[in-house]
Every structure is written in C-alpha cells, then in structure tokens.
Design brief:
By secondary structure, the chain is an alpha+beta fold. It is built from eight helices and eight strands; from the N terminus they run E-E-E-H-E-E-H-H-H-H-E-E-E-H-H-H. The protein has two domains: 79 residues, OB fold (Dihydrolipoamide Acetyltransferase, E2P), CATH 2.40.50; 164 residues, Up-down Bundle (de novo design (two linked rop proteins)), CATH 1.20.1440.120.
C-alpha cells in the first residue's frame, strides 16, 4: 500500500548529515508528533541543494508535504517551504543560543511520537515571539520557556496548596515542585532571590510580560542550572543539556 501524503507543519529539532548529499532530520510535527525524515540531495553542490540544507536548521518552522507510514521509522518529505521567516533567530547570536536551548530541551522531553497540538502551538508561538522580541524579553526567555514547558509534562511549579505561585517565596523545592516558606530537608532547592524570580516567571502568561520582570544574568544562570536538575528529577534519562554552557556565556 502506498504511503499517504499529508500537509503538516513542522519544527526542526535536529539535522544530521547522511551519506554524501542527504540529511536525516528530526521534526516535531503538528499532526504526527515527533517524526524522522530523510531529505535526499539536500547537501548537493547545486544552488537548489544548498537552499534545502539551510531550510532545515534547528528551530526552523516549515510547511511540509510528507509521505507518512506509521510503520516506518523514517519517512520522506515531498515538498517543503519556510512557514515563518525567523531571521533574527538565525542571525542574532544570543537569540540563536536561546532557540537552540529551547529545541534541545523539547527534544529531551519527547520520548514517544504521539502528537500534542497544544504543545506544538506553544513551541511554535514561543519561537515566533523570540524572533521578534527585544533584549529585555530575550534575557528572561530561556527561563520562561523552560518553566512553561513543564505544564505539558506534568510538573509545573506549584504552591503548597497546589495553586500557581502568587507572591514572594523563600524556597523552591525541586523534588516536590513546590514553593515553600521552609527549607526542604534535602539540598535540591532554590533560595529566596532565585525562588522569587522563578515565581514571577511562572506567573507570566505572555512573553511580552517578561520585559517587566527584573533579574540579573547571574541569577538567571543560577535558575537555569537548577531547572536542568529539576527536569532531570522529573524526565526519565534527561541527562545534561549541551546547549546550556553556551547559553550561560551568552546571557547578559
């Protein structure tokens, strides 16, 4: 039976060279969830081939026509085009560092190919906002994205009464995922300054709100390091983020 052709939207997560001219790409799609595709001739010396490879950078948002067969581990792309011109994500060093961090974080959380339209919309919307935002929003964006992404995997930070965070807090317990006024009996927690900034970023509903949230680079780095541990506590085989050391150096 011939593979069916579907029109979908996808976000490129990873692109790997295959053979002399091809690419194997990992794409989070709007309909099929996490998928792997082969693009033949994407790295050929022709002008057309070069353009193909450039379109499959991590964080690129594409409109795709794909051959889909759920029994195959690797499918093929029939047609593609950029769905959004995320020019500053690919030309601004800091925004590119943030985008690569976001993509790696998503990749480490996705264990199965199942689709989730709300998650796809969140990732796509976040990348579009990152492309257009100013420096003050960009500075808070990695923590904002990392916190909001936990909503989709069941460990969004909560108050002791399981509500979303409301005010200032002395501690954030990473094992329990709770803000608290008392230090936990273990050492996996954030103290007042970091916990309060994290609570503020939890309350932000839109990226535009990040411009009003004040913190410094040292504090944001500290929170990102803690969030890496927080994810590792709640996502099986999470490991370490390769993009995080680079992002730390870029953060202002």
């Amino acid at each position: 039976m011939a593979d069916k052709i579907h029109k979908i939207r996808g976000i490129v997560l990873r692109s790997v060279k295959y053979g002399e001219t091809s690419l194997i790409v990992s794409v989070y799609t709007s309909i099929f969830g996490l998928q792997t595709y082969i693009i033949n001739g994407a790295r050929s010396s022709s002008k057309k081939g070069g353009n193909k490879a450039a379109s499959f950078q991590p964080a690129a948002i594409l409109d795709l026509e794909v051959y889909h067969n759920s029994l195959k581990q690797i499918n093929r792309i029939k047609e593609f085009r950029l769905a959004a011109i995320n020019d500053t994500i690919f030309t601004n060093v800091i925004k590119n560092g943030v985008a690569l961090f976001m993509v790696e974080l998503v990749t480490k959380c996705l264990k199965e190919p199942e689709s989730n339209e709300d998650l796809f919309a969140f990732i796509e919307d976040s990348l579009l906002h990152l492309n257009d935002c100013n420096d003050s929003v960009t500075a808070n964006f990695p923590v904002f994205f990392a916190v909001q992404l936990t909503n989709f995997f069941g460990f969004f930070p909560r108050e002791n009464n399981r509500r979303a965070p409301q005010g200032n807090h002395l501690f954030f317990d990473m094992q329990e995922g709770l803000f608290t006024d008392e230090a936990p009996l273990h050492n996996l927690y954030l103290e007042q300054k970091a916990a309060s900034l994290l609570a503020e970023l939890c309350k932000a509903l839109q990226p535009a709100e990040l411009a009003q949230i004040r913190g410094n680079a040292k504090l944001r780095r500290h929170i990102l390091d803690a969030l890496e541990n927080y994810y590792a506590l709640h996502i099986q085989d999470f490991g370490k983020l390769k993009t995080l050391p680079v992002l730390r150096e870029l953060m202002l």
